[in-house]
Amino acid sequence: MKITEHLENAKSTLFSFEILPPLKGQSLKELLVGIEPLMEFKPPFVDVTYHREEFIYKKHPNGLLEKVSTKKRPGTVGICAAIMNKFHIDAVPHLLCGGFSKEETENALIDLNFIGVENVLALRGDAPKSEGKFVSEHNGHSYASELVEQIIRMNHGRYLHEETEIGFQTDFCVGVAGYPEKHFEAPSMKFDLKYLKEKVENGAEYIVTQMFFDNQKYFDFVEKVRKAGITVPIIPGIKPITTLGQITMLPRTFFLDLPDPLMDELEKCKTNTEVKEVGIEWAIQQCKELVGANAPSLHFYTMSKADTTYKIAKEVF
Predict the structure, then answer these.
(1) Within 13 Å, how many C-alpha atoms sit on residue 210's CB side?
(2) Predicted TM-score of the model (pTM)
(3) Catalytic residue selected from 5, 8, 18, 201
(4) Residue 34: partners with Cβ closer than 8 Å, 6 or more residues away
(5) Is 18 a catalytic residue?
(6) Phi, psi of 158 (to 5 degrees)
(7) What is the pLDDT of residues 240-283, one digit of tens each?
(8) Domain-by-domain residue ranges, the chain?
(9) Domain 3-316 has CATH 3.20.20.220
(10) Are 48 and 94 in contact (CB under 8 A)?
């Protein structure tokens, strides 16, 4: 079922979450067992992230460096199939511009359609860790709006190398990302909303936000999005703080603010255990307020660790 249909049919706020493919060497069984407790809250869909290739530089005896491609995580397509088979819920794979050509994207979509996936989240993706800025692949997309356009063209039966004949029509429901505190590369919120509207005009049917810790940021974002003429559902993204390191890492990495009341409590913490307790309680209150405001779904960034999300969901759903 499409995400939009899940949201339309829901009588209350839904529960959903995102997982990472397991690292190389970890088993799929371990991943599935790890998220199984969250099935108690009847998630209609689970997102599965996609990771571009990373590279290492191997030094040879002659001193020359060889750029070697590595793949640290297994394929998202297979994980989606496994989730759908075991839990009988919808899996939503992430598709990236970064690291993929248009042909590779088309092939991935053909595979996803073949196994019965009906939803995808279209993202530009980040620059590789070894590079300072995002650069598209040769014959790839530079912007998520272009990726959305390609997916919708396939929904209309238009493939890359079939310009005249109408091919098999896919039927993907496309989601995109939204940034309550602005994407860090956008010069202003006004321009960020302009790009978001372009993604929706190209065919995106729902928005999932980046994490935030101040609900007012989400409420203000929704208001601005609606004033911009965007009417699709906006799903808030939730992630509790669980370690001391995240207090500085999350704002630096995701360009977001931690509200003063939360920081007042975190500053008292001396251990990760204390931080985790504060983070869970803050997220519970966040979620209760969002449910009270009729958010369409609460989407948790679990990092494939169910225990924290379980404790929060147990108090909310």
Answers:
(1) 18
(2) 0.91
(3) 18
(4) 304, 305, 306
(5) yes
(6) -105, 115
(7) 999 999 999 999 999 999 999 999 999 999 999 999 999 999 99
(8) 3-316
(9) yes
(10) yes
